[in-house]
Model the fold of this input.
Amino acid sequence: MNLSGHTQHYAVLGHPIGHTLSPVMHNASFRSLDLDAVYLAFDVAPERLMTTLPVMADMGFLGVNLTVPLKEVAFRGLPNLDESARMLGSVNTVEFTPQGLKGHSTDGQGFLLALRETFSLRPKGLSVFVLGCGGAGRAVAIACAREGATRLILADADATRARMLADEIAALAPKSRIEPTEADPAAWRRACSRADLIVHATPVGMKPDDNALLGPEAFRKGQRVYDLIYMVPETVFMKAAREGGAETANGLGMLLHQGAFSFTIWTGQAPDISAMRRALEKAVYT
Done:
């Protein structure tokens, strides 16, 4: 990669940020397409996000991704939101335009495409259990409801957050049965055992010594389990689910596809998804 005074700059912001693989995939696509561009990663605390973004725009950045815990901060702070961000209540992609900053969410699209690719599955007609109702979990839950999930069970360590999200989704998808649970592992186990599709959307499992929030007894044969954590081949949540008989996948596919949608928003062209996928798989599986 040859950097110059003409190199275009993009980045991912989060707190912490050391786990991210977004630079790996985006820089692979830039190289494959022979674009004079670079994608970086910066640790930005939530309280500094809305002052940092305008500075980055002044410095010439053309776009950023946002990860934990910045997605909802940007949703509340950006006045110009794309329909995707307004619908999902979070921002994972910021476009730097001549008219100012514009927030988008590609998480829902990325998840649905990864689900079809990984399990040949759509949420329509399914009972779905989402554990974790923050930025990405929120987007996934709303996407599943809008795609026709017949039953959506929401759980979070903050029971109030789960109830508030349930109320919002009920207004968006009145045909779906929306059920929040209490912040109680026993309630989570019962909800999980009844679901067809389980989505783990908490950061628990990103650290090597984390314990799974649910054990093998919560899972059964015939279930599909999708863990949004992507930096390891098998998370502790996936291991427990596999031991319980479920089919599992990590979040690498969602990372890939939400990133590909972001790439197009920023550059106006399609990324080299094959190059992005190879770079991610090399980083995670070798």
